[in-house]
Fold these 4 entries.
Entry 1:
Amino acid sequence: MRFIGNQKIANFFDLAIKNGQLSQTCCFSGVGQVGKRTLANFLAAKILGVELPKLNSSADYHYLTRLEDEKTGKKKKEIAVEQVRELKEKLYQRSWSNGFKVAIVDEAELLNDESGNALLKVLEEPPQKCIIFLLTENDEKLLPTIQSRCQTFQFSTVSDDEIKTFLESLNVETEIIKKVIGLSWGRPGRAKELVENPELLENCIAEKKRFERISAAPIYLRWKEMEDVLSEKGGQVKTKETLDPILDLWIMICREKMAAENSPVYAALIDSISKIKNMLAANVNPKLAIEELLTKF
């Protein structure tokens, strides 16, 4: 199996499948874009005996994540109980192929109490020859009763050398690789996304430069630096959805600097940015939230 990073986990499953020793419920925990869904899909294809590109068309493969709100077009905040009940019904139906069924529950930490308890009933009495993968950025946010029924695997970020080798295998230009590595944060999925989306890559590079300028500027100049962040064309204030990726990038920059300089200043700044993200989630005016943040640099 060709997999970037966390090779011990991939090797473990290769052996488990070969020896017929798979646990019925496995939890993959780790930051986004580190490879959890990629590995789960690799394994699902192998278990079901189908080619990876044809996995989604297999009647024995089921993928569950948050639905989109029809009115807003945005993802809902939680996985609904109706989704889990529908999955349960499908899992208890007869298999179409070799007797196995595989289900992937993505963002499993977003199961609410009702949908979580509905899933728990499946885990307590799972169908025969059914493998369930729960994917989460934080397994501690799962219901304790669900945690106790999972074999959990912690995914770590990937070294720069591994990401460099991965990108070279895709024939990415050397100059692009240099730019991407510093912004991929040890996540192969993000590295691939940046390569495939040059506009996103350039935006991240520009945002990193803006952070450096803000950090070095006196407070009265920070407001000017942030004017185009706070306002869209026509003077409208940018939304939480627009600001979130910027703040996430700032957090990652702070983490890199904290590791390199061992300075508590960046730890405090990370806390401040995280609080601002929570304020935005609570529908606080984005301009007020960002102005509050700028006093913390």
Entry 2:
Amino acid sequence: MKDDLISIGRMAELNGISVPTLRLYDEKGLLKPRYIDPETGYRYYDTDQNARLDMIAYMKELGMSLAQIAQVLEKEDISLIEELLSQKNEQIHEQMRRLKAQHAAVERAIMSIERYRKSPATGILSLEYIDRRFAFGIDCSHNFYQDDVHSYERLLRELRIRLNEEGLQQIH
């Protein structure tokens, strides 16, 4: 029987993954060896199992967790796959929105540094065009410039809470 089977090392090599990964897949129930030698404990796979391994690799590439992959493989339900992929799609879009906001903030910071470096010496007037900007503020009950740093930090924390409530990232 072992003559038709592939050792765990060879299976890993053929599929470009590690032996520990195959052991993990066995542990998680994703890909059980076709045969385990009772004397040595060595795992052996059938070439037909490459298709399942390809499916696991594809689902991982799509960003699915091992738990989600196990669920899909167990239930073999196309609706479940569609639902999980739709959720993953939304997660990716949210990550892209955050990355775009972060990218814009980095570019603004770079432009501010460039503007600072190019600014005229003290006492020289200059006229500069600055792109349209939006401001978000909160009412302050007192002038925090006259108080200590703790007053400023309390108001800053309140601003962060309000930004979060409005769905705006602090980076804006």
Entry 3:
Amino acid sequence: MTNTFLEKLHPGFSQTIELAGAPIIEEKSQFQHIRIFDSVRNGRVLVLDDIVQLTTRDECGYSEMLTHLPMLEHGNVKQVMIAGGGDMAIAEEALKHRGVEVVFNVEIDERVVDLSRRHLGDVNAGAFADPRLKVQIEDAFVFLADKASRHRFDLIIADRPDPVGPAEVLFGDTFYERVRDALAPGGFAVFQNGVPFFQPEELTDTLRQMKKTFRYSGVYLAVVPSYIGGFMALTWVSNDAVLGDPSKWQALDTAFAASRIATDYYTPAMHRAAFALPAWIERLVRA
């Protein structure tokens, strides 16, 4: 590893990150190549298999929008499951909600959890210190099939990578069926679905799959500069509820103020704006 890291995530387009000092971690686990380093501009960086997963400067746009938006609109989330997310940044955001009883963070690679605990405390120290966090070292695909997961979770967050290699199963019909069966009444599941500017087929194919399995589905947007390409698509599904329901938005400001949660990205205004799609993304959704 040199003093720069080159991410070639999309054909014909890449980004270069300049390191601030020597790499902190560079090793191969049972599942993937793990890098952690400090960057000149974006703080500490976690890279898995040469793909940027998190920078401490802008992870808020991702983790806050995957948690606070569905949780505040739901209004009574008690049981949360996170698939992946071994850095625990999403878990920390979910645990900021006082009404949450338990967060199961189901991560297949124990080494990511151990290294994140040691080196990414800026984004996860609160999670590891919270007794409501249950770290489960297991394949989320298997965890969801367990009878104990049936109709259990008010919120399921799939912090999945791109649909290649072992993660491909997290984009299949069986995975969505297991998510459907694990949702409690009124519950939501949310997923990251890449950057539509460079990955339009991922969004259209996923929404098509979701419509086969769930009664309600849709997309909202966030911007995370380190995930090159502009808008990131966050998709949602439910068996019996609609996310992005304007009739619920009048209570957002009061609920957010009452939560006393400090954020860097999420606000009720950003919540409402996330469902406003540029015309070209609306065309992808309709495709």
Entry 4:
Amino acid sequence: MKILLGLFLIVSFVSCSGSKSVKKNDNEIELSDASEFTEEVMSDDIIADEALANAGGAPIMIEETMGEANSVYTVQANETLMMIAFKIYGDYRKWKMLASWNQDKLSGDYKITEGMSLNYSAPAQEFVWQPEGNPYLIKRGDTLGTISTDTYGMSKYWKEIWQNNKALILDPNKIFAGFTIYTPNLDSRDVANI
């Protein structure tokens, strides 16, 4: 009987803890794993690994050892360290490597400006991503569901958008403002790209 009561309390506690909040720079960011269409916006602000882990995402792990920075990347307009890491390595989570190689330039705030030169270690094999579909710039407040509604007139095609952008969207509940994704051209009678 005590075991059943204990299990009931544990299940009740776990089911009531669907969302978490993280405090960052006096702005409260809601991170929820209870909804199908949640977002995590990272444009200029970078949320700590703990926030990602608490939101149900995996902590950022750098699998390879950091070699010496042997190449230089020139920052383009409106880029972030995450976007640059994706362009170079195919993994936006490697922004930490870029930050560590450029500590003297970043001054701890991770802000970069157009024209800035960043040091990086060139990967053994160049990352090439050739997406198909129409470009869509993610805005603050967007989710895959709202992007589907904006593009196709209904939210049910969010999975197709995710599948088309899996290299860039590792978790469909986490998309980033400022990233450009590609909405696929769907061959269906009830779908028209708006």
